[in-house]
Amino acid sequence: MKRVQRLPLRAGLLGGGQLARMLALKGHEMGLEIHVLSPDPRDPAAQVVRHHHRGDPASEADLKAFFARVDIVTFESEFMDAALLGTVATATRVPVHPRPEIMGRLQDRLRQKEFLESRRLPTAAWREVSSAEDAEAAFHAFDGELVFKKRRFGYDGYGTYVVRDRAALRRAIDAVESDRHGFIAEAFVPFRREIALMIARRGSGETATFPFVETFQERSRCLWVKGPIAPRARGAARLPAKLAAGLDELDYRGVMGVELFETAKGLLVNELAPRVHNSAHYSLDALTLDQFSAHWRAVLDLAFGEARPLAGGFAMYNLLGSHARAPSWSLPANARLHWYGKNENRPGRKMGHINGLGTSPGNALKRLTKARAAFDV
Amino acid sequence: MKRVQRLPLRAGLLGGGQLARMLALKGHEMGLEIHVLSPDPRDPAAQVVRHHHRGDPASEADLKAFFARVDIVTFESEFMDAALLGTVATATRVPVHPRPEIMGRLQDRLRQKEFLESRRLPTAAWREVSSAEDAEAAFHAFDGELVFKKRRFGYDGYGTYVVRDRAALRRAIDAVESDRHGFIAEAFVPFRREIALMIARRGSGETATFPFVETFQERSRCLWVKGPIAPRARGAARLPAKLAAGLDELDYRGVMGVELFETAKGLLVNELAPRVHNSAHYSLDALTLDQFSAHWRAVLDLAFGEARPLAGGFAMYNLLGSHARAPSWSLPANARLHWYGKNENRPGRKMGHINGLGTSPGNALKRLTKARAAFDV
Fold first, then answer.
1. Other residues' Cβ atoms within 10 Å of the Cβ of residue B346
2. Residue B31 is nearest to which of A288, A302, A341, comparing CB atoms?
3. In order of start, what are the domains of chain B with their CATH numbers?
4. N or C end of chain A: which has fewer CB within 10 A?
5. Complex ipTM above 0.90?
6. A303 touches chain B (CB under 8 A)
7. What pLDDT, in 10s, does the model give residues A85-129?
8. Distant-in-sequence, close-in-space partners of B183: CB < 8 Å, separation ≥ 6
9. pTM to 2 decimals?
């Protein structure tokens, strides 16, 4: 076992949103000295740390000043300038995990698809699209049912174009022609349900796999998660080992969120996110290992222990803004509240989430749906 | 259900130790804006909050300045100037919970004994001692086996004198004569084991009771806790309801730690602590409701929900310093670490604790005792 010799260990977080906030809280719990780099002292993570460094994670000067103050760095979002991050990490000799090269590879949907295929991880058929001609060709190849996705910086439905007719194709082509990052086109996947999995790997090679969960999206935003579930699809049992082998090849350190489609033909990987993930927020109250602690353990190369559900079922319900007024709540009895402290409420914004347990996944979700009513968000 | 209308709610914590640190982390989790008043920015709680106010919780000026910045105040230790706190709370119209009058009453062992007797809560026979004559009389009344305790500000064995012979009586009398706070003497209690219970009450009158746990003390310091247990003693089943009635009389808001002796004649209350308590740290990872969240819910008058164990057994092991060198650790696999970030290690100092689950209380403790070896503290 590796000993952490130097305490306190100064751990740097790039970004100040809710993922960074929950990483900060769990980092504090295990005794890390957490430093946050973000633009606004009112950012969710900035509010819960002593060491907030006001700055722009996209600025080389701000990154350099920040790296000089910490022993190790991680991030809450893969949508950063990975090359710049790599340069600063090398110059300052402060390790970043997951490594910037991996961030660069996975933030690009095209390179992510190539990675999935190289590891024989099943994923929807796809093509590169960088012109109107490519788009037309994809439309024909995928029988007029397809999805165009920006190669980079798309999230929660932004940068995604579902195409089922020529009018939609026209709109997608406009986007392709006006965006320098390029697109990919994917065959439309008729899925039964969406599923997610969280896997963590540390430097020694040990991995920890969380249970499969079902995720439900409304208007491209995750509304709830329930689990544990057993996918009704071929290949599900082998998937964790195949993912672990993929992470080994990358020498990956950190948690990775895996979004999946359950289809009649088997499980397909929709997306890999090299970071903590909304679909695993349930783990804060429903597993013996939460994803935020797991991420720190991975980054610091410390043993994971088991990731076992604490009840027959669990659920997570996102508290999405439905108006722009100040939110109010009364804490419901049997739900654990995780509130992000965002400065402003607005429709669709993730303001917090609640976690709950039950005798089964469905029972937990039912209880939580009721508890959701206590919030006017 | 009461709605928290104003967000963020600014919650003030008096004191900067590990109890305040864990209150701060759980307060952040539920979205409170936590403010800490403590003397040193290196204090455990000061390290995990954006709003640290450097100052002395015993100073009227510092308290007043602090109260002007927050909406509600609570504390991590009852050993404060309760009268001063009450004056400042009244002057600034900022509520303090538990109320300062209750703090004043329970911080005095004599008045606490009177409270226990008034509620017919069983406790060891006792006498007031303010002179050598009183001490001699107590020695005779309790057949030469007794314990002298300072009325105020004693903790972890400090201010406690176990007397079984005349030489020890002489030392106790010296202490009685040199301390202006006065003492009580208690009949020595031959207990089978020490037990603890946590009970929470909120303004509406709702209470939540945690399971009974066994606590093990070494040199007057808690070393480990395991549970849930069923006391083998008369009166155990009725105790939670009697305690709840006592809290009702006080209109108490907050959690209260209850230390008990299991004796051949039944359960005896050893001590009430009007605050979060070391004996309930296990709840962070082993119950559906942790004591720190429960305290905030109590203070803010929000529903508790159930406080149910998440496994057949659980345990907590304190990481007590055994030397003055810098501590080092490797996180053990199946233990949750709560590290307090204290500036210096020293023998006997509580540096952190680990929590773990098992099939039974004994099994959980056995696993945790093994995990303890990963720490060089």
1. 13
2. A341
3. 10-96 (3.40.50.20), 125-187 (3.30.1490.20), 191-376 (3.30.470.20)
4. N
5. yes
6. yes
7. 999 999 999 999 999 999 999 999 999 999 999 999 999 999 999
8. B128, B129, B130, B135, B148, B149, B150, B151, B172, B175, B176
9. 0.95
